[in-house]
Write a structure and sequence with these properties.
- Chains B, D: Keywords: Oxidoreductase.
- Chains B, D: This is Glycine dehydrogenase subunit 1.
- Chains B, D: It is an enzyme of class 1 (oxidoreductase).
- The complex is a heterotetramer, with two copies of chain A (about 500 residues) and two copies of chain B (about 425 residues).
- By secondary structure, chain A is an alpha/beta fold.
- Chain A contains 15 helices and eleven strands.
- In chain A, strand 8 (about 295-300) and strand 9 (about 305) form a beta hairpin.
- In chain A, helix 4 packs across helix 9 (about 320-335).
- Chain B contains 13 helices and 14 strands.
- The N and C termini of chain B lie far apart (about 60 Å).
- Classes of the chains: A alpha/beta (about 500), B alpha/beta (about 425).
- Chains A and B meet through helix 1, helix 3, helix 4, helix 5 and helix 6 of A and helix 1, helix 2, helix 3, helix 4 and helix 5 of B.
């Protein structure tokens, strides 16, 4: 399809849906609040709106359509279709309807909390955050509230690591903290000596992922936690990469005070083009009073909402992103303890198998010769030096074969990076095919670098010139801006 | 049986893969995890429903414990009608299960979101709209922070006709470095008379406000803010903009709010997404933390490509040096809102607004003297004052009605949308009359 | 996607879904009934089954995706998505559950019957048939039962016309009738003189469409009916092409005794790759006793099922294809009388507009210079004679542009035919685009006939060699046959 | 307002189109319709619900009048579990709204249906399976007609352990030229002892039969038929074939039946589709009226194309000279059944069969002495004999149970599938005990 922008499909007078007549006298508005001219929204019949968006959907990939192992750290696993069918059952529930009329959904919240508490070893879990980053921010807010409650409001530094998600640094910064970032040591692990140097009376918390996006499990993680504890700081675990360690090791076991899961990564809720997602903040006993409120309690006869004593308050509308709470609950209930462990083991097996395949491709490497858990940040450095083709370009060419990969977050500490995380959802044949595609493209890069640099050849659109997007005179973040700058 | 979600758990495949890697067991991959950190027992979880049909039966049993009723609950989550086409599009596997592909393989996502922001731009008469953030709470918090960064100031005057939960969020999000001052509410329910000085970053107004009151002094407040080098930030529900003037029309610098009304189900709070909009003024655009998608040319003349506008602002590009943070938020609801607006078109939005205005007024008239702020223009919500709010709501519940959200001991917020028929409203009025 | 056959994706031991354990003692089967070896069904995980079928779905067109005006006589109109949402509401209803527990669905049957009776002018309507052809067969069965009840079982001839759907002839033949087919006269209409010659004491019925697939309305239709009546035969109306005459003229007005609608054509139910569909048989008073039973009656307090006195009996499980009954009901209820008339008028406008466009293409013609109602059977005869390119080949080439057309039923009375029926669902822009594509392909055919004959170039698959499909030694109607004949 | 379903009803477009054609009004297109045939008034139809939300509310009001219960109703329409993936695939717009495109633009439809027939072929151990006809009734009628045409004979011996409605259909479809003779039922519920001669075209057997009884003498009947130059036609539900021998295994020439069990909802009778299968024997293949899809080579080596096998058989090709007729039937249910079988695989079908066998037997044991044919092997259904069948069913209805389908005044047919838990069965048994 060569699908126009929807405004180009508009014809005056057409309508996609009808609205009921008021059935009551019309309200006349004063000029001060009345809209002066009608908005230039597109006008299309219903079939044409539908056709447009269906065609656009066909110009998108997703877990269901491709071998989606290339979005490392994002844990693109299968979201069971059956769990989507439950959405209709909650569609018309209002978050402020009386609790006695919402016992089913509250039971799901409560049980999911208990299950995630067991999986992480934490005492309680808030399911309110709207995403992983929102959970990180909520954790930081609890850290601040905790220190303030203890008269330690002066703690103004947060320590994180380069291979943790940028939101750990960015959220803490937004909350007013100074950020100290630990760089990897020669082993690819966060440098414990750097941590030793960083901790002190100003330390509010350590925000750390393990395994980090390299896929390497930090065996000294308990020491990291202890170091932070030794100066009165809190240790906060970004469990974005938990998929490979479910049932194997738990946040509490390493001494963490709090942490979060991404339900849309580890617990299978669909990624939805980038949300809605859901985050879950788990805390140890001492942080319970600070949890976002309300939380769901069982009072012996039914589920009730209570707000912890020193709660950081409500952080979003409703109790959480209920559609994803329901899906995550259903997913765990379809697997159980043994199933979760099989998930973890198979994800790790898949990752190591894929690594075995990728490392057979000349020019590909996985910096640091270590075991990997859930994912690997690879490098095309050797290939790139040989051919001049960059990792981004190889990724674009791979898209011609119906797959793709994500390089990594900036900055590229691993040069020419690409990050693969196969999860438990893909078959051996999928992994073989994926590796074969990358091997093919690497070979092309060697034989004809210009060809690879010219990709894509088999995509919805051709090579995009991104430069206007950074030029205020040319950028067009809406159609009206585009019309103004480029069409008039 | 191999679990349907885990193909390589099949023992034969597993053994072949292990052999190819050259290790004996999966255990070896975990060798880096010290014994002291290992969980020595199975997780203590409920027995699973492995058969899909058993899971479904269990879930339906839980859902049967929820009760629906004729509901006049609003207060930030609204029972607007969701067109079937919205659900059709947002349940498409291609959209539902995609994430963060590049503009080549995920062209559809980029274009759909570009069309969403573009339609919002028309509705708001603003040139820059973000790819959605989590919800209207976050949108308000970030919009105010943008104003603070832009002005370099740390104080903001906030309407007190605001959802208490949203205010809680603003406090959590802002208060460590931003002073929140609450503006009074006038007797008619509108934003009170206020003064500001040059230390204020912004005035934050909502319209319709907590009480459903449409604020009439937007221009005056914009002028007040601008006179002191501050910005006017306006929170508004875009569903009202078929009939109400957009904030830009009376001088607002930033508009923000929630788009749940535009095609999302209530879903017990799961349908929210936040928008933030400004004019195309580079220093203000620089303050957006969210992604902004824009058109870019391709190697083929006339073809539309898409990409990130001004990516350098973001935490993806510069970690803590970016503006706030960006991550997964609520993109699918943006796509859905785009579908909604395309279905409605300008006339649909106007008619919808007129229907809501008329039915709201009808309900206020039907409820009579208990209605507060009866003289103001209301859109979709209004407050009633009764001797015992909890008692009234309990009585209504017995009659199969969720009568509204209790704001305090004597005040109930009643919500009327296009989904409430005149008969529904009459039923509410009759029930209230019976109880009082 | 280059999607393998699903058997090729199979790996032993995989499963797409789990089944519950019995929870009761196993039953041991004797050898006489026990399956000896397990069936060679494919074994895939759930994601892989889903991915396979989603990819196949993307290799299919449908009304929602393309400008589907090319399946003339099939009336490919928009099936509103909202009507699909009602399917969940009836999914778990059993056709033999007590009538008092099915009052909602029975009300829908009853009201739809009343509405279709009004639209056709008939006295009663059975919604039982599973398709248009099944309705034709039911009509024939009623015709036979009627004549037999009147002691006229000797009537053994059914008269139909060449431009009526082949099922009129084929169903009547299956029911044991001799078929007399009227050919078009010089005007393109069924030859009334031929009818005059054909009718007689052996005439059981005339089965006729109007407008026929040519799109020409037969203005003498009442005379046709009268001629048949004059010899004691029944007149049966195939209303497959009713979309252009809703609210304009009715079956009863021309004197028909019975007839049928295709709910999946005129009344918007989706075509579903070729069914499930639904047919509706309308009859005049005298045929009511013969209707398939049961029918839905209102007894003053509720809806009940009754079987007409001389019913031809039950012709399928349940009362009918309820999903489509519900959709057709909802569609009419969303339009009303005025809406239906607008449907008809717009369909006719669209058809005449498209004809105006098509006839501007050199080499295209519409045999018989007559007004058209709902569709037109066009001809590429001129183009074909000039270039040697056949209509089928032009259609295949058009598929490269994301549209297609159907030629016509065999035999090709109109040479090098193609049949377009734009319905009310498509926009002027759609019709312009469609005509432009055909004009482009016609131009290609003139410039480079071999190129057009070589099409497709932009399809899922390349040019197919159909010859093995007619050779018993080579044909492979299942994978097991293919494996046996071609892979071993 | 222009109706959302009719874009060119917009007056401006309409006028432009008329102008381009060169006519003044739409009325001119109808000039061929004589005045006497014109309807001079508007149709008398209910006032429409133009707004989608009003239609939805109306429809939900109707659906609320239907009642669901714990149901043991079978008798041809079965409450098997429908996997979510089946619905996901058959609600895809591309499949749902397509019709009769060519193998190029509708490759997906051809391949999906080819895969359906191929999986059925494996289950049935037969090489030729049709693209579905309407339902199992039609499949049985056509299968018998195929046997008549193949043998050139006009008489068939039909089991009397057959659904009365299906028999009605067979009479309607066959009796003008085919004599139907009913075979007796033995005391154990199986096909009785019969004799045939050389005038018979076929024996038609069902297994499991009306009473859920699995017929054990298939081979014997095949031999009897073949000894007289007749065919054995067997009606069977493919859902049983994970555990039961397929008809081909004991010599059946044609298998037929309904596939509603394979992933279709009951939908008040809307989930039916019929299959017919034979071996790859050209003279018998020649008798299929349905479409048959097969693999065909393309211009690219190794690529699969698809097309119609032996198209010349059909009424599409030769009108009344074809075999019976072909038209729109139930293709989407074929695709769905293919998805179902691919999800289940051989082990799933076996386990499902075992679960159903075991639960059926459990239910028979739980109901005790009222069970008829208790000595036979039952799959999914069994009959019970009670003094007052209608009274029992009414009593069960009061207890929230649809207890079964009444076959006659004293007989009720009870259906148990994998969706009935042991607790469900116990509840039925307890309720029956209470009533009797």
């Amino acid at each position: 399809w060569d699908e126009p922008i929807i405004f180009e499909l508009s014809q005056p007078g057409r309508r996609g849906i009808a609205v009921p007549e008021p059935g009551a006298p019309k309200v006349e508005l004063p000029d001060s609040v009345r809209r002066a001219s009608k908005p230039a929204l597109p006008e299309l019949s219903q079939l044409h709106v539908l056709r447009h968006y269906l065609r656009l959907s066909q110009e998108n990939l997703g877990v269901d359509l491709n071998i989606d192992v290339g979005q490392g750290t994002c844990t693109m696993k299968y979201s069971p279709k059956v769990n989507d069918t439950f959405m209709a059952d909650i569609a018309d529930l209002h978050p402020e309807q009386p609790v006695e009329s919402a016992q089913g959904v509250l039971e799901i919240y409560h049980t999911l909390e208990r299950m995630l508490a067991e999986i992480s070893g934490m005492a309680r879990v808030s399911l309110q955050p709207g995403s992983g980053s929102a959970a990180i921010y909520a954790n930081i807010a609890m850290i601040r509230a905790y220190h303030e409650a203890n008269g330690e409001g002066h703690r103004d530094q947060v320590i994180t690591t380069m291979f943790s998600h940028p939101s750990n640094a960015a959220c803490a910064k937004t909350a007013g903290y100074e950020i100290i970032t630990l760089m990897p040591d020669a082993e690819g692990l966060p440098d414990i000596e750097a941590l030793r140097a960083a901790v002190g009376p100003r330390t509010a918390a350590l925000m750390i992922t393990n395994p980090e996006d390299t896929g390497i499990f930090n065996p000294r993680i308990a020491e990291f936690v202890e170091l932070v504890h030794s100066v009165g700081g809190l240790a906060c675990y970004d469990q974005a990469n938990a998929n490979g360690i479910l049932g194997i090791t738990r946040a509490a076991d390493a001494g963490f005070d709090l942490g979060h899961f991404n339900l849309h990564k580890t617990f299978s809720t669909p990624h939805a083009c980038g949300g809605p997602a859901a985050g879950a903040c788990g805390v140890s006993e001492k942080l319970i009073p600070f949890l976002p409120g309300p939380v769901v309690d069982f009072d012996g006869s039914g589920y009730v909402l209570t707000t912890p004593e020193k709660s950081i308050g409500k952080i979003r509308p409703g109790l959480g992103v209920t559609p994803n709470i329901v899906r995550a609950y259903a997913w765990i209930m379809s697997l159980g303890a043994e199933g979760l462990r099989t998930v973890a083991e198979t994800a790790v097996l898949n990752n190591n198998y894929l690594m075995h395949k990728i490392l057979q491709i000349p020019g590909a490497s996985a910096p640091w010769d270590k075991r990997r858990v859930e994912q690997v940040r690879y490098s095309w450095q050797e290939l790139s030096e040989e051919t001049g083709v960059h990792s981004e370009e190889i990724g674009v060419r791979a898209a011609d074969f119906g797959v793709h990969y994500w390089t990594s977050h900036h900055p590229y500490v691993v040069p020419e990076p690409f990050t693969l995380e196969p999860t438990e959802s893909y078959s051996k044949e999928d992994l073989d095919e994926y590796a074969a595609i990358l091997a093919h493209v690497a070979d092309e890069a060697r034989r004809d670098p210009a060809f690879v640099k010219g990709a894509p050849y088999n995509s919805t659109v051709h090579k995009i010139d991104m430069t206007p997007l950074d030029d205020p005179k040319q950028w067009a973040p809406t159609w009206r801006a585009y019309v103004r700058k480029h069409l008039s | 049986m191999t679990h349907p979600y885990i193909p390589n758990a099949e023992p034969g495949v597993r053994a072949r893969m292990l052999a190819e890697i050259g290790v004996d067991s999966v255990e070896e991959f975990y060798a880096d995890i010290p014994a002291g950190l290992r969980l020595a027992r199975p997780l203590d979880l409920p027995a699973p429903f492995t058969a899909e049909q058993d899971l479904v039966r269990h879930m339906r049993g839980l859902f049967a414990k929820n009760v629906e009723a004729l509901s006049f609950l609003g207060h930030g989550t609204y029972p607007h009608y969701v067109p079937a086409v919205c659900d059709e599009v947002n349940t498409r596997s291609e959209f539902l299960t995609a994430y963060a592909g590049e503009p080549y393989e995920d062209h559809g996502r980029f274009q759909s979101l570009f069309e969403y922001v573009s339609q919002m731009g028309e509705l708001l008469e603003m040139d820059v709209v973000n790819v959605p953030t989590y919800d209207g709470y976050q949108a308000a918090g970030t919009a105010i922070r943008m104003a603070c960064r832009y002005t370099g100031r740390g104080k903001v005057l906030v309407t007190s006709a605001i959802n208490r939960d949203k205010l809680s969020k603003l406090r959590d999000f802002l208060s460590h470095d931003t002073e929140i001052e609450l503006a009074p509410v006038k007797d008619n329910g509108e934003f009170g008379d206020v003064e500001i000085d040059d230390s204020y970053a912004a005035i934050y107004l909502e319209t319709p406000n907590l009480y459903g009151v449409v604020e009439t002094r937007g221009r005056e407040l914009a002028e007040l803010a601008h006179a002191h080098g501050a910005l006017l930030v306006v929170g508004t529900d875009p569903i009202s903009l078929g009939v109400l003037a957009p904030p830009a029309a009376y001088g607002a610098d930033i508009a923000c709010g929630d788009i749940q009304s535009l095609g999302m189900h209530q879903s017990y709070g799961g349908g929210h997404a936040g928008y933030i909009a400004t004019q195309d003024h580079e220093p203000l655009v620089a303050e957006f933390p969210s992604r902004l998608f824009g058109i870019a040319p391709t190697a083929v003349e006339g073809e539309y490509g898409f990409g990130d506008v001004y990516y350098d602002r973001t935490s993806f590009a510069h970690r803590e040096e970016g503006k706030e943070w960006v991550g997964t938020a609520a993109a699918l609801w943006g796509i859905t809102a785009g579908v909604y607006l395309a279905l409605m078109g300008p006339e649909g939005m106007r008619e919808l607004g007129e229907t809501i205005l008329a039915r709201t007024r009808y309900a206020m008239d039907a409820l009579g003297s208990i209605v507060k702020h009866a003289g103001a223009i209301h859109f979709r919500e209004f407050a009633i004052e009764v001797p015992d709010a909890a008692g009234l709501l309990a009585g209504l519940r017995e009659r199969g009605i969720f009568g509204g959200v209790q704001l305090d001991e004597r005040t109930v917020l009643v919500c009327v949308t296009e989904r409430h028929s005149i008969a529904d409203i009459d039923r509410l009025a009759a029930a209230i009359k019976e109880i009082l």
